[in-house]
Amino acid sequence: MSGIRTPQIRVRQAPEPVRSVRMSPAERATTQMAVSLLLDYPDAAYGSRLRMLRAEVAGLPTPVREAVVEFLDAIEPLEIVERERRYVATFDLKRKCCMYLSYYAAGDTRRRGAALVAFHEAYRAAGWEFDAEELPDYLPAVLEFAARSGSPIADRLLAAHREGIEVLRAALLAVGSPYARLIEAVGMSLAEIDEGTRERYLRLINEGPPSESVGLGGPVELPPFIPVGGAAQEVHG
Q1: pLDDT surpassing 50 at residue 81
Q2: pLDDT digits (tens, 9 = 90+) for 165-206
Q3: Of 23, 74, 134, 231, which sits with the fewest C-beta atoms within 10 Å of its C-beta?
Q4: Domain locations in the chain as residue ranges
Q5: Which helix H or strand E contains 201, and what residues bound it?
Q6: What are the phi and psi torsion angles at 234 (to 5°)?
């Protein structure tokens, strides 16, 4: 959805950013793909997906496995209707729990369009073409891109929006959502957060995304990408 209104993100005490966990490339891909699938809408096939993913994450490093399994333990016993209700209540009705990454840095401003173009360019630079109903900055789609492509471009894309990921986790923690554990697993799969990103995260917690074309120090800029050859692939969020 493109017309997301500016949330007022207020957390009494901002949680510390998630610490990185040492993983192999295969473990990182498994983590990111599992979270991508678990963050998707809980349709009728979601129950069988939960059982499959419980087996898939069994070999992950302990902190990551525990985070995902805690989510599975909370969501698996629920009826389909209750899973759907909770998902909608969390991500569709709570504006502060936004899974569109560029929103945290650009807000609902004109800069948002440029940020979305940067996402499209990042997919293409890695030899992929984004082809899905969601916007290209939709977190499950970006995680699938990272898991399936193994491209350093995907890593840079996630790193460029790390503060938004941390703000999403803080918002989910504030409402007591088990989905916070999935976002924690994402953070564990990324590089250690630096001081500049930590400061931007705390600023976002206190001020929220910008509501006009000024604020937060200008638009998000990713390093220039050089397109690569090969057949384009589809990324579905």
Answers
A1: yes
A2: 999 999 999 999 999 999 999 999 998 887 877 777 777 777
A3: 231
A4: 25-235
A5: helix 195-207
A6: -95, 140
